[in-house]
């Protein structure tokens, strides 16, 4: 029996194009001692994949080597096993790649309850949820009554940050790139304000929404929204730099905020990446599962069908065309 996998064969200079990938058909391997074979059911497409394709060795995770299966997280079921920790039928999540099957020794795999819908797992319990949870509670340390601004607020990370902040008693200003996304934030997620950063008067709208300034800023994008938010920050405000999607396809970095402004406002700005915190997945997963079962978190999943949809599908994230967590169902 054979299965398909998508290999990275060329590095991007700007946008992701089809010639960067090759789909290969390969025979299922024979397992060695301690190995297990996972049949993937769903893959997660994430903005970070663009960074993993580049040759940059100075990042938090090494680049994908040319010729290797493209790195991606996913979920699936153990179909064969020589590893007693992961018997046949165990549901697992991990960085198994853009592939229909993956062989593993179990390292880096997390077990999942079999009954949770795949969309709920990948939209909430997996990377988006743990990122939102860590960035909000461990980096920004919110207090009731504060005002938070969130970029890519209708995206998978941002929408969870806003809901958790709202549940904690903050005033939430969500920033997104379309009328439809802003309406979802206001009408379905009950954000206090939802602003379209593409509007010509965005800065005026932001200042009107943040009459008492912004205490916390969960930054997912960079780009044109960043400066007006920075200018509205209150003294001793905190900024969690989670993502910079507006930068990932650029060959030259855009200028950042004024360091003088950081002094004047006595701001704390902290970047974070989740691979530093993988060991907390069980703890965060439990907290997120509890929020989900209490009905405290709403999510929406944008599902593509078939492995062949994955490479070009990543571009939906960069065009703002994903409505919620981008998933490939196999
Ligand atoms: N630090 C970590 O460990 C970690 C973990 C997960 C994710 N992240 C980062 O968090 C951010 C959000 O990730 P996600 O998975 O939740 O994706 P997402 O928000 O579901 O999708 C990406 C969204 O970014 C917005 N966007 C794209 N290009 C933009 C631009 N030039 N300017 C402004 N907005 C733009 C689009 O929304 P609009 O339609 O609203 O423009 C798009 O839908 C990304 O930057 C990602 O790299 C970091």
UniProtKB/TrEMBL annotation:
<dbReference type="InterPro" id="IPR041694">
    <property type="entry name" value="ADH_N_2"/>
</dbReference>
<feature type="domain" description="Enoyl reductase (ER)">
    <location>
        <begin position="11"/>
        <end position="328"/>
    </location>
</feature>
<protein>
    <submittedName>
        <fullName>NADPH-dependent curcumin reductase</fullName>
        <ecNumber>1.3.1.-</ecNumber>
    </submittedName>
</protein>
<keyword id="KW-0560">Oxidoreductase</keyword>
<dbReference type="GO" id="GO:0016628">
    <property type="term" value="F:oxidoreductase activity, acting on the CH-CH group of donors, NAD or NADP as acceptor"/>
</dbReference>
<dbReference type="InterPro" id="IPR036291">
    <property type="entry name" value="NAD(P)-bd_dom_sf"/>
</dbReference>
<dbReference type="Pfam" id="PF00107">
    <property type="entry name" value="ADH_zinc_N"/>
</dbReference>
<dbReference type="InterPro" id="IPR013149">
    <property type="entry name" value="ADH-like_C"/>
</dbReference>
<dbReference type="InterPro" id="IPR011032">
    <property type="entry name" value="GroES-like_sf"/>
</dbReference>
<dbReference type="Pfam" id="PF16884">
    <property type="entry name" value="ADH_N_2"/>
</dbReference>
<dbReference type="InterPro" id="IPR045010">
    <property type="entry name" value="MDR_fam"/>
</dbReference>
<dbReference type="InterPro" id="IPR020843">
    <property type="entry name" value="ER"/>
</dbReference>
């Amino acid at each position: 029996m054979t299965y398909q996998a998508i290999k990275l064969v060329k590095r991007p200079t700007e946008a992701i194009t089809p010639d960067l990938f090759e789909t290969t058909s390969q025979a299922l391997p024979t397992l060695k001692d301690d190995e297990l074979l996972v049949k993937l059911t769903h893959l997660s497409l994430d903005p970070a994949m663009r960074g993993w394709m580049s040759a940059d060795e100075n990042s938090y995770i090494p680049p994908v080597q040319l010729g290797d299966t493209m790195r991606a997280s996913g979920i699936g079921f153990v179909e064969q096993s020589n590893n007693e920790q992961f018997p046949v039928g165990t549901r697992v999540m991990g960085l198994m790649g853009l592939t229909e099957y993956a062989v593993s020794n179990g390292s880096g795999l997390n077990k999942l309850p079999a009954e949770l819908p795949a969309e709920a797992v990948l939209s909430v319990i997996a990377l988006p949820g743990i990122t939102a949870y860590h960035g909000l509670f461990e980096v920004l340390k919110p207090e009731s009554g504060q005002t938070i601004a969130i970029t890519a607020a209708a995206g998978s990370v941002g929408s969870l940050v806003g809901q958790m902040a709202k549940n904690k008693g903050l005033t939430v200003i969500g920033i997104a790139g379309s009328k439809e996304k802003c309406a979802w934030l206001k009408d379905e997620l009950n954000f206090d304000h939802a602003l379209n950063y593409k509007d010509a008067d965005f800065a005026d709208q932001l200042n009107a929404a943040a009459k008492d300034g912004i205490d916390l800023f969960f930054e997912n994008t960079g780009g044109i929204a960043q400066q007006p938010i920075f200018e509205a920050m209150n003294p001793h405000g905190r900024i969690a730099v989670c993502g910079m999607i507006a930068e990932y396809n650029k060959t030259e970095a855009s200028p950042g905020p004024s360091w003088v402004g950081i002094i004047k406002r006595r701001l704390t700005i902290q970047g974070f990446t989740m691979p530093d915190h993988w060991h907390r997945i069980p703890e965060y997963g439990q907290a997120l599962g509890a929020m989900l079962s209490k009905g405290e978190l709403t999510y929406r999943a944008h599902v593509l069908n078939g492995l062949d949809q994955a490479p070009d599908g990543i571009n939906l994230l960069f065009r703002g065309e994903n409505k919620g967590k981008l998933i490939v169902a196999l």
